[in-house]
Amino acid sequence: MAQLLKKTVHLPLNNDVQIIQDFKPEDVNLEYTGIKIIDIKEHGFYEEATEAFEICIVALTGKIDVSDGENTYNDLGTRDSVFEKIPTDSIYISREHHIQISAVKDSRVIICYSPCDEVRPTELIPASENGVEDRGKYSNQRHVHNILPDTHTASEKLLVVEVYTDQGNWSSYPPHKHDVDNLPDESFLEEIYYHEMNPDKGFVFQRVYTDDLSLDETMTVQNGEVVIVPKGYHPVAVPDGYNGYYLNVMAGPKKVWKFNNQKDHEWIIDRK
């Protein structure tokens, strides 16, 4: 089932680190996709072993140094708020590494997970290499930063993207899905949404549903919360007065993003 995961805070290792969300695939009945959101105070650090997972570390806000156990990548991060609407730095690290993330200043970090088979080279994904695009028209407009798209060769399974949706607009719309392993027509990708709002007291609505409505959940999502999309369509609506941001983590058996729109609503794409 789809799940709305409420904000939870606990302190691991030291008082300079707060884990905001922490879900490996098995924690949320997924096979391929996990996420962790961490707040690290200035001069604080967080460390873990990647074990059987490949990861993408996104310097969401603030500035961090990242070590993969062999090399250190300094001063990653470009913004103090996601709503500056500029891309940020990320880094891909494969399985069987020991990572350490150190905060140069107060930072929020997202770690995206997927189990993988290969040990691959660590690869820095600088902000300047994010693919930036605008999609949609009318009330279906959003601004996109492609961090780790399916065309990026660093990862084995992981895809990562940031999306901005202004007030009064819809996103992931018309409703689309990618839950059938039937390439070249459609790929199977599990998906996790991490949401923020500006101002942060706002909320958005997200519906996750299948054609037969055996899954049909509509959720009110608040700042810092996570939505799990195991299958089905998953549109997002942003109310007037508030702007929405989300970071998507996707993964599946093949790193291909091939979706299908719900046929009943596909007509809106070509309307005049």
Automatic annotation (TrEMBL):
GO terms for biological process: inositol catabolic process. Keywords: Isomerase. Gene3D superfamilies: Jelly Rolls (2.60.120.10). InterPro entries: Deoxy-glucuronate_isom_IolB, KduI/IolB_isomerase, RmlC-like_jellyroll, RmlC_Cupin_sf. Its EC number is 5.3.1.30. It comes from the Bacteria. One of its GO terms (molecular function) is glucuronate isomerase activity. Pfam families: KduI (PF04962). This is 5-deoxy-glucuronate isomerase. It comes from Staphylococcus xylosus.
